[in-house]
Amino acid sequence: MQVQHIGYRIRGFYRVAALGYLWDMTPKDAQRRFEILRFFDKHGLAATRDAFGVSRRTLYPNLGKSKRHVLLGPWCARHGIALPSVSTAVSSRPTSPSSSRSAASSAGTPTPKTRR
């Protein structure tokens, strides 16, 4: 009689088992943040802030340029706009108006830029 493993002939069984093992090892603060984000998806911003007392920054993590590019795709498709490249999408992030319209003098005080 031949002994077979529990995942014999089940495609991807061991990969899923390894992910489950890793999920069990997730730090407690990451699991709590995941629970907060699930609550936020279901109930909204105001209820989440009341229930958990977390800041808005906890709910909106910083995204890298490639993730922002992926999330920008459906929006561009909805509005009929061509999807820009990754570098263009990153460089077109909104900045504060004061930073683009004024320069700092040598003393550090802001001086308005003049058009030439």
Keywords:
116 residues; mainly alpha; two-stranded antiparallel sheet; 7 helices; 2 strands
Describe this structure in words.
This protein has a two-stranded antiparallel sheet with strand order 1-2. The chain has a domain at 28-85. The N and C termini lie far apart (89 Å). It has 116 residues and is mainly alpha-helical. Helix 2 (28-43) runs antiparallel to helix 3. The protein has helices spanning 13-24, 28-43, 45-52, 56-59, 65-79, 86-91, 97-101; strands spanning 102-104, 110-112. A hairpin with a 5-residue loop joins strand 1 and strand 2 (110-112). It has seven helices and two strands, in the order H-H-H-H-H-H-H-E-E.
Topology:
Layout: H1 13-24, H2 28-43, H3 45-52, H4 56-59, H5 65-79, H6 86-91, H7 97-101, E1 102-104, E2 110-112
Antiparallel strand pairs: 1-2
Helix pairs in contact: 2-3
